[in-house]
Specification:
Layout (H helix, E strand, L loop, with lengths): L37 E10 L11 E6 L6 E5 L3 E5 L7 E5 L18 E6 L13 E8 L17 E9 L14 E8 L9 E3 L13 E5 L21 E5 L31 E4 L4 E6 L6 E5 L5 E7 L10 E2 L2 E4 L2 E3 L14 E4 L11 E7 L10 E6 L5 E5 L12 E7 L2 E3 L1 H11 L11 E4 L5 E4 L5 E6 L1
Parallel strand pairs: 1-24
Antiparallel strand pairs: 1-28, 2-3, 3-4, 4-5, 6-7, 7-8, 8-9, 10-11, 11-12, 12-13, 14-15, 15-16, 16-20, 17-18, 18-19, 21-22, 22-23, 23-24, 24-25, 26-27, 27-28
Length: 469
């Protein structure tokens, strides 16, 4: 997920796509760190227990269970924890790394593990095909079975598997079903850039074309620069946003369906994959939908220079690996000649630069939420996102005619007892209070609740925090 190059090796700067040709700086000025800051409070929503070795859980993703309102949060090591809508009664729902499931979660390093999970919208609706079904997307060390998706490279670091779980009683406190069913298995050539998020469109209603279809982010396979040229290859599943019907069976392995409305489902070209919804992505970590217009947005982690938020629609090409954000990607760096000049590319609405003074040596975009609630009036109409290592929180105007760049990016800070802090500083305060060494990075992820609730997750103190006005 994180780039290996040091910022000291990058001749970069920061903001706006109107860069000068011949310059090595994709942005003209840094993010305006003290302009239009939104200051919010946080409350402690819940605490997830340390693991058996005494380490804080590596929290990754959080959603609200359909029908019940329970919040479910995941740890990279394979656990799903459930809690009530008020954060009480925290308990283990299922450990997908438990021996009886034979999944063998691979969670070594910063990027592998339980990537994401999603509940079918019919999860609590008895008598429907999706009753009791939820899905996990995880890296595994079990590479004995034959893969469904291969990268074209000779290496096989590990596999990423999409699993379907079927609870007998969705209202039960813990999972009570059998071992999961494998929908697909992707053979990963490298240990980084593996999966990303999976999700059902929360705006789709029964009868809608999108209802019950699962979006799956499958990254470019790793290493750096997309050496297997997967992003632009419509014969490869890697470097794509896939859309599948988990209850169907017309895929090549018979374990899921290919929606007829997918952009390449009826393509008569040889070896074009019908599962592809959008392509040209590098590391599609998080995506979400705007409840005001149904538009989907993606936070895609960049290579060495540019992080981006881009709109996604059916058949969209986001450019990787011929473009990194608004700039051509040539010889493992961006070229500033003729930005945003190719036909048929979906360009970012916002981007930021790795060398900006706000960041650490590693940079990776995360989030995101298109905030349409009145609960936090200051965020109404904003796209909220963040930077994973530094924990910086940002927003842009969701309704502006954005042309990319970082000129429109503004910060969100936390009011902690009258002191204004970053999210990383909050984590460090908790570490010190517990007698631990302060974390050097935030490892920020968002959790999602009803009515645009935003929860802040991290890997260093086990606390789930809720953003509040």
């Amino acid at each position: 997920m994180f780039r290996t190059a040091l910022i000291g090796l990058l001749a970069l700067g920061s903001s706006t796509v109107l860069a000068q040709a011949g310059s090595t700086n994709p942005f003209g000025t840094p993010i305006e760190a003290n302009r239009d800051i939104i200051t919010l409070h946080v409350s402690e929503f819940a605490r997830i227990p340390d693991d058996d070795a005494g380490f804080a859980p590596r929290l990754m993703h959080m959603v609200t269970e359909p029908g019940s309102g329970q919040r479910i949060v995941s740890a990279m090591t394979g656990q799903l924890y459930a809690m009530n809508a008020d954060g009480s009664n925290v308990h283990l729902y299922v450990d997908i790394n438990a021996p009886e499931w034979q999944v063998r979660v691979m969670s070594a390093g910063n990027e592998r593990g339980l990537q994401s999970f999603a509940f079918h919208p019919q999860f609590t609706q008895a008598g429907t095909p999706g009753y009791g079904k939820f899905y996990t997307y995880t890296d595994t060390g079990n590479t004995e079975p034959a893969p469904d998706f291969v990268s074209g490279g000779e290496r096989r670091s590990h596999d990423t598997v999409l699993l379907e779980w079927s609870a007998r009683n969705p209202q039960a406190a813990t999972y009570d079903g059998d071992a999961p069913r494998v929908l697909f298995r992707a053979a990963q050539p490298f240990p980084n850039h593996n999966g990303g998020q999976i999700a059902f469109n929360p705006l789709a209603a029964p009868g809608d074309e999108d209802y019950g279809l699962l979006y799956v982010g499958l990254a470019d396979g790793g290493s750096g620069g997309d050496p297997l040229n997967a992003g632009q290859n419509l014969n490869s599943y890697f470097g794509k946003i896939l859309r599948v019907d988990p209850l169907g069976n017309d895929s090549s392995n018979g374990q899921y369906g290919i929606p007829a409305s997918n952009p390449f489902a009826n393509d008569d070209r040889d070896n074009t994959r019908g599962e592809i919804y959008a392509y040209g992505v590098r590391n599609p970590q998080r995506f979400n939908w705007d409840s005001s217009n149904g538009r989907m947005y993606l936070a895609d982690i960049g290579q060495n220079q540019v992080e981006e938020i881009s709109p996604v629609n059916s058949g969209a090409n986001l450019g990787w690996n011929t473009w990194e954000g608004s700039y051509r990607y040539v010889n493992r760096e961006v070229s500033l000649d003729n930005p945003r000049s190719a036909a048929g590319i979906t360009w970012p609405v916002a981007e930021y630069d790795h060398a900006d003074p706000l960041f650490q040596r590693q940079v990776a975009i995360t989030g995101l939420v298109v905030y349409r609630s009145n609960t936090i009036a200051a965020l109404q109409g904003k796209i909220v996102f963040g930077d994973n290592p530094s924990g910086e929180l940002f927003y842009i105007d969701a309704d502006a005619d954005s042309q990319g760049g970082q000129a429109a990016i503004r910060r969100i800070l936390i009011n902690d007892g009258g002191q204004t802090k970053t999210f990383l500083q909050l984590i460090q305060d908790t570490n010190r209070a517990a007698g631990d060494e302060p974390a050097q990075r935030a490892d920020l992820r968002f959790g999602y609740g009803p009515d645009s609730q935003i929860y802040l997750l991290n890997k260093h103190d086990g606390i789930i925090r809720l953003l509040q006005p």
